């Protein structure tokens, strides 16, 4: 019986440690991020504060384009924020429900899970920018700022 209790306690500790690591993920370097305007690599010195985080750009022209109409580029900016660890997934981007194992997709460098295969299927049927718009266009249900 004591062995079972120790094993259970170890499993709980491992789960707590793992989940804490996910929630407090460190922000990744912008060098691997894609500019939400051009799709090119980012310059760490070109950035704008956005939705509680930072969005990086390849150049000043893209930075200015974003400042001029951030709504136009919001989905790709949110995608960048997820891929750099500034936003973490809290639920299905469509329903807000718990993410079911085995429903993950890579959406432009950001792994995203869904509550069911129907939600996952909506995104699989879309392509490129359509996927980004579906998943990251509205982030309220599925994503939250990472713990600092």
Please tell me about this protein's structure.
A hairpin with a 2-residue loop joins β1 and β2 (about 55). This protein has helices at about 1-25, 60-70, 70-85, 115-125, 130-135; strands at about 45-50, 55, 85-90, 105, 110, 145. It has about 150 residues and is α+β, with helices and mostly antiparallel strands. It has a two-stranded antiparallel sheet. The chain has a two-stranded antiparallel sheet with strand order 3-6. The N and C termini lie far apart (about 40 Å). The chain has one domain. The chain has five helices and six strands, in the order αββααβββααβ. α2 packs across α3 (about 70-85) and α3 crosses α5 (about 130-135). The longest helix has 22 residues, at about 1-25.
What attributes characterize this protein structure?
148 residues, 5 helices, two-stranded antiparallel ribbon, disordered N terminus, alpha+beta
List the helices and strands and how they pair.
Layout: H1 2-23, E1 43-50, E2 53-57, H2 60-68, H3 70-83, E3 87-89, E4 105-107, E5 110-112, H4 117-125, H5 128-136, E6 143-145
Antiparallel strand pairs: 1-2, 3-6, 4-5
Largest sheet, in brief, is: 2 strands, antiparallel
Shape category: globular
Number of folding domains? 1
Write down the oligomeric state: single chain
Order of helices and strands: HEEHHEEEHHE
Question: In what order do the strands lie side by side in the largest sheet?
Answer: 1-2
Low-pLDDT windows of residues: 1-25
Helicity level:
40-55%
What is the count of DSSP helices, taking H or I runs of 4+ residues? 5
- Alpha-beta classification: alpha+beta
N/C terminus separation: 39 Å
Radius of gyration: 18 Å
What number is the mean pLDDT? 84
DSSP, total strands: 6
């Amino acid at each position: 019986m004591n062995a079972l209790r120790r094993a259970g306690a170890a499993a709980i500790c491992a789960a707590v440690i793992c989940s804490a690591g996910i929630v407090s993920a460190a922000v990744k370097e912008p060098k691997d991020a894609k500019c939400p305007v051009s799709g090119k690599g980012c310059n760490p010195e070109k950035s704008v504060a956005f939705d509680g985080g930072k969005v990086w750009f390849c150049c000043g022209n893209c930075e200015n384009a974003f400042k001029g109409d951030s709504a136009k580029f919001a989905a790709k900016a949110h995608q960048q924020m997820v891929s750099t660890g500034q936003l973490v997934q809290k639920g299905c981007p469509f329903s807000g429900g718990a993410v079911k194992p085995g429903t993950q997709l890579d959406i432009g460098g950001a792994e995203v899970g869904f509550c069911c295969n129907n939600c996952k299927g909506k995104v699989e049927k879309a392509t490129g920018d359509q996927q980004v718009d579906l998943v990251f266009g509205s982030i309220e249900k599925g994503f939250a700022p990472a713990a600092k």
